[in-house]
Specification:
The structure holds two protein chains of two kinds. Chain A is of the alpha+beta class. In chain A, the strands form two sheets. In chain A, strands 1, 2, 3, 4, 5, 6, 7, 8, 9 and 10 form a ten-stranded antiparallel beta sheet that branches. A four-stranded antiparallel beta sheet of chain A has the order 11-12-13-14, with helices on one face. In chain A, strand 2 and strand 3 form a beta hairpin. In chain A, helix 9 runs parallel beside helix 14, helix 13 crosses helix 16 and helix 15 packs antiparallel against helix 16. The longest helix of chain A has 37 residues. Chain A is elongated and about 125 Å long. Chain A starts with 25 loop residues before the first helix and ends with a helix. The N terminus and C terminus of chain A are likely disordered. By secondary structure, chain B is an all-alpha fold. Chain B is 75% helix and 0% strand. Chain B has 16 helices and no strands. In chain B, helix 6 runs antiparallel to helix 13. Classes of the chains: A alpha+beta, B mainly alpha. Chains A and B meet through helix 1, helix 3, helix 7, helix 8 and helix 9 of A and helix 1, helix 2, helix 6, helix 7 and helix 8 of B.
Chain lengths: 543, 333
C-alpha cells in the first residue's frame, strides 16, 4: 500500500486548497484528467451535432451534464460528489430531464395537430405545391433511363402558334429542346422513349411524381391528359408572422396563443393544418376543470383509482396479517413449507401471472368462470360488467400482493415484545382486545411506511389494468377513451399515446397536466412517508 | 388493597393455563380451523400455477381445450408438444423468436444489474460516510424523483433515444474530420436497442436502492474506516478493500431485486424495443396472448413455465435473505 495522506473521512477545513481525496498518485491524476478530456471531447461532439440538428433541448441538457462533470472534478471541495456523479448524471438525462420536459409540455398544446414548432410547420407548408388554374398545359410522353428514372417530353404551342418543347426529368432541371423534330425521338440524352403499354403500367408512379426541380416543376396529377407546371402554394413571412396561400390568395395570420395560422377575418376552425406548438399557460389545467366532457371521466376515474388503491392495500394487508398470524401459531405444522407455497404468487413475474388470470377468468372459456357457472348457474361477466371487472382486478391484485404483506407482517409480528401481551393479559385483556390495542398499532408503526409505499405503487399500477382489462368495459357516452377500470395513469397514458383507438388524438399537453397532478399527490404522500421513516433515522447513530 | 396481589396471581395462573397448558379439545379445534385456512390459501395460491403447468403440457394448445388438470396426454412426446414448438420448431420460431428473447433478457438483466449495483454502492458509500453540502437535499431528492409516474416521461426518453440514433450518421456529416471514428457503436444505445433500455433501467433505479444500501452501510461500524485511515488508506482503498466485501449481503439483495425487476419489466421494454427480434422474454410472452388470445395459449404457458420457474426458485431460495435485507434497510433508513 502506498503511503498517502488521506483526509477522506473528515471534511477538509473550509478554505483549504488540498484535494479532499488526499494526495493522489501521478498516474491516478493523469488517468482522471485523460478520462475527463475524452468525456468532454465526446460530449462536445454530441452537443455540436445536436446544435446542427436544431435540437436545443438536448444541447442544454448535455451542456449541463458536461459542465457538472467538470465542476465535480475540478472543484476540490466537491470531491464527495465524484462518488455520486455517475448515477446522478445518468439520472439527469433519463429521469430529471424527462420530468422537466413533462412540466414544460403541461403548459403547451403539444399533441396531434400541434407536433412541430412554428418554423418547422412553416417550412413543411412551403414544400406544398399546387397547379394554378390558368396555367399553361402540355401534352406529354414518357421516357426512362437505365437507372429506371422517368422523364417527360412536354409539347405545347406559344402565343404565336409555334411549337414549344421541353424535357423534364425527375429531380433535375427542365431544359428546353431547341429545334425539335416533329415527332419525339426514340432516344433523348440517356433516356429511352417508352412504349404505350409501358407508359400505362408506369402511370401510377407518374401521377405521384414531380418533374423538374426547385420552383420550376411540372406534374400530371390524377391521370390528366395534360401536364401543368406547379407553383409553391404557401409563402411564410416571418416579419408579419403570416402565411400567404397563393392558390386562394388568402392570408393566414399566426396566432401564437393558439398555435394556429388563422385566415384573415376567419375563425380557428378554418386554420391551416397542422398547427404549431406554443406555450398556452394554464389552459390545460383550466380545460381540465372547466370542461365537463373532460372533467366527468376524470372524476370517475380518480374516484375508482383511489378506491382501488385503498381497497387493494387494505385487503392485501388484512389477508397477509391473517395468514402471518395463522402460520406463526405453534399449532400449525410445517409452517415453513406452507409459507413457501403461499409465497409463490409474489415470486411469479407479474406479466405471466396477470395473463394467466386473464385466461382463467375468460368469460366464455375460462375454467374459473366455468366452475362458478357450474356451481351457481351464473356466468360472471368479468370483463363486460363494470363491477365484475373491478372485482376481477381486486381479486388478481390480492393474489399477487398479499404474500408480500404476509412476509412483512410475519417479520414485524416477531418484533413486538411478548411482555406487552403478558402485561395485557395480567390486566385481563381478551385476545381480541390485545389484537386491536397492541398487535395492530404496533404493527402499523413498523409496517406503515411499507403500506404507504404499497399504496403509491398500487395507485400507479398501470401494468395490472393494461394486461387484465385494458380499462374495459368502456364508459359510454364520453368522447375520450376511458373505461370503468382505467386508473388515472392508464387514462393519462391513453390520452398521450392515443391507445389502440385510431380516431383518438394524442394530446401530450393535457396528459402531462394530469401527470403533474398525479406527481404532486405522490410527492405529498412520499414526503409524509419520509417523515415517518425519519423517526428511525434519528435513532440511527450514523445520521 | 390487600386483594390486588392475590387477584394478579390468579390472572397469571389463568393466562398460563390458556397459553401453555391447552386441552386436547382446544388444540384440535385450534389446529383444524387454522389448517383449513392454510389449505384454502394454498389452493388459491397454486390454482393458476397448476393451470399454467397443465396448459404447458397439454398437447391441445388452445385456451378452449384447457382444463385444470390436463387430459388426453398419452405419451411423453404429448407432454412436450408445446415446449418443442416453442424452442425448436423452425416455423414457429420465425414468428416467435424465443431464443432471441431469452438471450436479450439475459444481456439486459445481467448488464443492468451490474451497473445498478456499482453505481448504487458508490453513491450510497458517499451518502453514508462523507458529510457535504446538499447531502440531505440530494438524498431526499432522489427519493422524491422516484415518486414521478415515469410512464409519461417516456415521451422525452423516446425522443432522446431517437436523437441519439441520428448521431451515428449525423456526426460524420457535421464534423467530417471525425469520420475516422466508427460512430456506429452509438447505435447500441438507441430506440429499439438493448443498450438504450439498459441506460433507462440504470438511470431509473437509483432512488430506492441507494436508500437501502445507505441504510445498510450506516450499520457498518465507522471504526473500520477510521482504522484504515490510520493505516494510511485512501477513501477508495477503504471502500474497495473493506466496505465492498462487508456490504455483500446488501449487494446480493439489491442485485437480486435489480435482476428480477429488469427481467420482469414489460412496460419500458415494450415501448423501447420495437422489432420482435429485439424483444425481451416478457414482451415476447405477451405477444403470444396479444395476437390471438385463444390460439397460442399452450405456447404461452410453456414459455411462462420456462421463464418463470428460475425466477420463482431464486425468490424462494433467497426469501429470508431478501426479507431481512429489506427490513433492515428500510428501518435504518
Amino acid at each position: 500500500m502506498t503511503t498517502q495522506i488521506d483526509t477522506a473521512l473528515t471534511p477538509p477545513p473550509s478554505g483549504s486548497s488540498t484535494s479532499g481525496q488526499g494526495s493522489i498518485s501521478v498516474i491516478g491524476l493523469l488517468a482522471r484528467y485523460l478520462g475527463l478530456a475524452a468525456f468532454n471531447a465526446m460530449a462536445l461532439t454530441f452537443i455540436y451535432t445536436f446544435l446542427q440538428d436544431d435540437n436545443l433541448n438536448l444541447v442544454v441538457v448535455f451542456s449541463i451534464i458536461t459542465l457538472l462533470a467538470n465542476i465535480v472534478i475540478f472543484v476540490p471541495r466537491l470531491w464527495p460528489l465524484r462518488w455520486i456523479a455517475p448515477g446522478l448524471l445518468l439520472a439527469l438525462l433519463f429521469v430529471i430531464y424527462p420530468i422537466v420536459y413533462t412540466v414544460v409540455t403541461a403548459f403547451s398544446n403539444y399533441g396531434d395537430g400541434h407536433m412541430l414548432t412554428k418554423g418547422q410547420v412553416a417550412s413543411l407548408l412551403e414544400q406544398q405545391q399546387f397547379i394554378p388554374e390558368n396555367a399553361q398545359t402540355y401534352r406529354w410522353i414518357v421516357y426512362q433511363n437505365a437507372a429506371g428514372n422517368y422523364a417527360l417530353w412536354l409539347v405545347t404551342t406559344d402565343a404565336a402558334g409555334n411549337p414549344l418543347v421541353a424535357f423534364a426529368p425527375i429531380g433535375a432541371a427542365i431544359e428546353e429542346v431547341a429545334s425539335p423534330a416533329s415527332e419525339p425521338p426514340e432516344q433523348y440524352a440517356a433516356y429511352r422513349l417508352l412504349t404505350r403499354a409501358e407508359q400505362t403500367r408506369a402511370l401510377g408512379t407518374l401521377e405521384r411524381a414531380v418533374f423538374g426541380i426547385g420552383s420550376d416543376t411540372v406534374a400530371i396529377l390524377n391521370g390528366r391528359q395534360a401536364a401543368r407546371p406547379l407553383m409553391q402554394r404557401y409563402v411564410y413571412d416571418a416579419t408579419s408572422n403570416s402565411i400567404l396561400d397563393q392558390q386562394t390568395n388568402t392570408r393566414y395570420l399566426g396566432d401564437d396563443k393558439l398555435g394556429l395560422f388563422i385566415p384573415e377575418g376567419g375563425t380557428a376552425e378554418n386554420a391551416l393544418v397542422p398547427g404549431y406548438r406554443v406555450n398556452i399557460g394554464l389552459a390545460n389545467f383550466q380545460r381540465l376543470f372547466s370542461n365537463p366532457v373532460l372533467l366527468e371521466p376524470l372524476v370517475d376515474i380518480s374516484g375508482w383509482t383511489v378506491m382501488y388503491a385503498i381497497l387493494a392495500v387494505v385487503i392485501s394487508f388484512a389477508f397477509g396479517l391473517l395468514m402471518a398470524m395463522v402460520l406463526d401459531h405453534p399449532f400449525v405444522p410445517f409452517a415453513k413449507f406452507w409459507r413457501a407455497l403461499i409465497f409463490i404468487p409474489y415470486a411469479i413475474p407479474a406479466v405471466i401471472s396477470i395473463l394467466i388470470w386473464r385466461g382463467l377468468l375468460n368469460q366464455t372459456i375460462g375454467i374459473v368462470t366455468n366452475a362458478i357457472a357450474d356451481l351457481t348457474g351464473y356466468r360472471i361477466p368479468w370483463f363486460t360488467d363494470p363491477w365484475a371487472a373491478k372485482a376481477a382486478i381486486l381479486l388478481v391484485d390480492l393474489w399477487i400482493g398479499y404474500p408480500y404483506m404476509m412476509l412483512v407482517c410475519s417479520g414485524a409480528l416477531k418484533a413486538i415484545p411478548t411482555e406487552m401481551y403478558e402485561a395485557a393479559a395480567v390486566d385481563g385483556a381478551k385476545p381480541w382486545h390485545s389484537f386491536w390495542k397492541i398487535t395492530l398499532p404496533m404493527l402499523l408503526i413498523s409496517v406503515g411506511p411499507l403500506l404507504i409505499a404499497s399504496f403509491m405503487f398500487t395507485f400507479n399500477n398501470y401494468l395490472l389494468i393494461e394486461l387484465l382489462t385494458s380499462g374495459n368495459p368502456p364508459i359510454p357516452g364520453i368522447t375520450a377513451t376511458a373505461g370503468y377500470t382505467d386508473l388515472l395513469i392508464n387514462y393519462t397514458y391513453n390520452l398521450a399515446f392515443g391507445a389502440n383507438n385510431a380516431n383518438t388524438q394524442a394530446d401530450y399537453g393535457y396528459a402531462s397536466a394530469i401527470t403533474l397532478i398525479i406527481f404532486a399527490v405522490m410527492v405529498v404522500i412520499a414526503l409524509f412517508n419520509y417523515r415517518f421513516v425519519a423517526r428511525w433515522e434519528r435513532i440511527g447513530e450514523n445520521v | 388493597m390487600s386483594s390486588r396481589p392475590r387477584a394478579k396471581v390468579r390472572v397469571q395462573e389463568d393466562h398460563a393455563s390458556t397459553s401453555l397448558i391447552v386441552s386436547s379439545r382446544e388444540r384440535f379445534f385450534g389446529t383444524t380451523w387454522r389448517m383449513i385456512l392454510v389449505l384454502l390459501a394454498t389452493a388459491f395460491a397454486l390454482l393458476p400455477v397448476v393451470f399454467v403447468f397443465s396448459s404447458a403440457i397439454n398437447p391441445a394448445g388452445t385456451l378452449t381445450t384447457q382444463t385444470l388438470l390436463p387430459r388426453g396426454i398419452e405419451s411423453l412426446s404429448d407432454m412436450t408438444t408445446n415446449f418443442r414448438k416453442l424452442m425448436f420448431d423452425a416455423e414457429s420460431l420465425a414468428v416467435f423468436p424465443f431464443w432471441n428473447w431469452v438471450v436479450n433478457s439475459a444481456i439486459v438483466s445481467v448488464t443492468s444489474t451490474t451497473l445498478i449495483v456499482l453505481s448504487t454502492i458508490l453513491s450510497a458509500y458517499a451518502f453514508s460516510r462523507f458529510r457535504f453540502y446538499g447531502r440531505k437535499t440530494l438524498l431526499l431528492g432522489i427519493m422524491l424523483l422516484q415518486a414521478f409516474p415515469n410512464l409519461l416521461a417516456m415521451i422525452a426518453i423516446f425522443l432522446i433515444l431517437l436523437e441519439i440514433g441520428r448521431l451515428s450518421t449525423a456526426i460524420p456529416q457535421v464534423l467530417p474530420f471525425l469520420s475516422f471514428i466508427d460512430w456506429s457503436f452509438l447505435n447500441l444505445f438507441v430506440l429499439n436497442a438493448l443498450g438504450g433500455l439498459i441506460l433507462v433501467y440504470v438511470a431509473g433505479s437509483a432512488g430506492l436502492n441507494t436508500w437501502l444500501m445507505k441504510g445498510f452501510l450506516d450499520t457498518v461500524p465507522r471504526e473500520i474506516d477510521e482504522s484504515a485511515k490510520v493505516d494510511g488508506a485512501t477513501a477508495w482503498q477503504t471502500f474497495w478493500m473493506l466496505i465492498f466485501p462487508l456490504a455483500r449481503p446488501m449487494i446480493v439483495v439489491i442485485g437480486v431485486i435489480a435482476f428480477i425487476g429488469t427481467f420482469n419489466d414489460f412496460v419500458l421494454a415494450r415501448i423501447i424495443l420495437r422489432d420482435k427480434e429485439n424483444w425481451t422474454v416478457m414482451v415476447g410472452l405477451y405477444s403470444f396472448i396479444n395476437e390471438q388470445f385463444n390460439r397460442d395459449w399452450g405456447m404461452f404457458a410453456a414459455g411462462a413455465v420456462v421463464a418463470g420457474t428460475p425466477i420463482v426458485i431464486m425468490y424462494l431460495l433467497l426469501q429470508d435473505h431478501l426479507a431481512r435485507g429489506l427490513t433492515s434497510g428500510a428501518v435504518k433508513g
